[in-house]
């Protein structure tokens, strides 16, 4: 089965450790993530202004590329891409006046009316692969690995594009259980990491990061699992400074969900690219006897 | 803080534009403060989010635009999903930012970000940040 796939900018540069394990894992699970042709940046943040239509052009063009392929669904991995594409899609579906303006502005493109469904890979795993079928493909159950699922903002908000229950999401917990890891719930599972404030107020970010990381650790997690390259950066890059500031804090590994998936499917570190992660995940995996066993596979 | 509220501020162009750009009815808010309570950035703000709504509907433009609150908002939408009135504060924050940016006054320019940071930051942070903070 081939799935239309929108990668977005960051996955091709800073977040190869999110993309490569996803593509390899889906092959193992019997699906091919097929990059849509001529994709462009989605704009990263959805425009919140009622009178600003020009910033809808970029995400809508990507949806048109999917429609041109004869596909009715597009898969994303990055939380921001999912959010921006899904909200722009909703606008095209529900607002006839803005749809008309945008279609007539993009004169060289075919008309678009929200025909494509935007989904996250987690939804594909849950609804199309199924947790039981996934569990059966696991070669290396991640037993004993206590991981806090961190959803961040854009997978869950606003409500109309959430991939799961806004107040009590479970999709990451379900994935962790399917690959044999132990989910550790913590109250800050959807608290903002500071997002794009990193470019204008970088000094504020460690405060937000500490609040999230410390809570996960206090609740018994040894690592966090996440889906977003910006969450990864904000929670990861300041950890060395946080170690100096907070006695007893030795850093905490951050994993992309696709890395834990690939590891459990037996794909190993050459696919997972743990060397690109924050918080020295390989140390933890060796301690849990999860790396040597993989290398032996 | 003292401010003068008059029919001039209440009916100002600022109030009209905030309503128009955000698409929000500012009078929906009943000032319960859940937005401030749920805001993860509030500790870095000089005006709590709840007060931004109140000042906006009173037309106190100077008080809002001299505050750093709208530039501290990360559009995380914690306020939006928790508002019991269905009011979307994230859109009001965006409208107020845009009223500055559309005067060709940038909050952040690409050259304000050091080359080292530019290399280190994920692309979506650069694109997202510059979209929010420059015109």
Task: Describe it.
The complex is a heterodimer of chains A (297) and B (135). Chain A is an alpha/beta fold. Chain A has 2 domains: 120 residues, Glutathione S-transferase Yfyf (Class Pi), Chain A, domain 2; 158 residues, Rossmann fold (3-Layer(aba) Sandwich). Chain A contains 15 helices and 8 strands. Chain A has a 4-stranded parallel β-sheet, with helices on both faces. Chain A is globular, with a radius of gyration of 19 Å. Chain A starts with a strand and ends with a helix. The model of chain A has no long low-confidence stretch (mean pLDDT 96). Helix content of chain B is 54%, strand content 0%. Chain B starts with 6 loop residues before the first helix and ends with a helix. Chain B has 2 domains: 97 residues, Fumarate Reductase Iron-sulfur Protein, Chain B, domain 2 (Orthogonal Bundle), CATH 1.10.1060.10; 29 residues, no CATH class. Chain B has 135 residues and is mostly helical. In chain B, helix 2 packs across helix 8.
- Report the CATH superfamily of the largest domain in chain B: Alpha-helical ferredoxin
Major β-sheet of chain B, in short? none
> Count of helices of chain B?
10
How many domains make up the 3D coordinates of chain A? Answer: 2
Q: Characterize the overall form of chain A.
A: globular
Radius of gyration of chain A in whole Å, from Cα? Answer: 19 Å
Report strand % of chain B.
Answer: under 5%
CATH class of the largest domain in chain B: Mainly Alpha
Provide the helix percentage of chain B: 40-55%
Give the DSSP E fraction of chain A (strand runs of 2 or more residues): 5-15%
Q: Rg of chain B from C-alpha positions?
A: 15 Å
Helix content, binned percent of chain A: 40-55%
Question: What is the terminal-to-terminal distance of chain B?
Answer: 30 Å
CA distance, first residue to last residue of chain A: 26 Å
SS elements, strand count of chain A: 8
Q: Which regions of chain B contain 5 or more consecutive residues with pLDDT less than 50?
A: none
Q: Average the pLDDT over all residues of chain B and give the rounded result.
A: 96
The major sheet of chain A is characterized as:
4 strands, parallel
Largest inter-chain contact set? A-B, 46 and 42 residues
Secondary-structure content class of chain A: alpha/beta
